[in-house]
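In the design runs reported in the main text, the only information available to the sequence generator was the tokenized backbone. The following block is the verbatim input for one such run; it is reproduced so that readers can re-run the procedure and compare outputs position by position.
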């Protein structure tokens, strides 16, 4: 069964710059995103 009904599906492809921006944003938001972590050694 063709569930796509003839619609082309796009798959996002990240380049090096995209991965750098993604990593930077995650590191900047790490404290907000992981606010409920248990105390311990922090890895950088």
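Verbatim output:
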């Amino acid at each position: 069964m063709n569930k796509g009904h003839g619609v082309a599906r796009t798959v996002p492809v990240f380049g090096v710059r995209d991965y750098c921006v993604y990593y930077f944003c995650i590191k900047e938001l790490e404290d907000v995103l992981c606010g409920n972590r248990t105390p311990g050694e922090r890895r950088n």
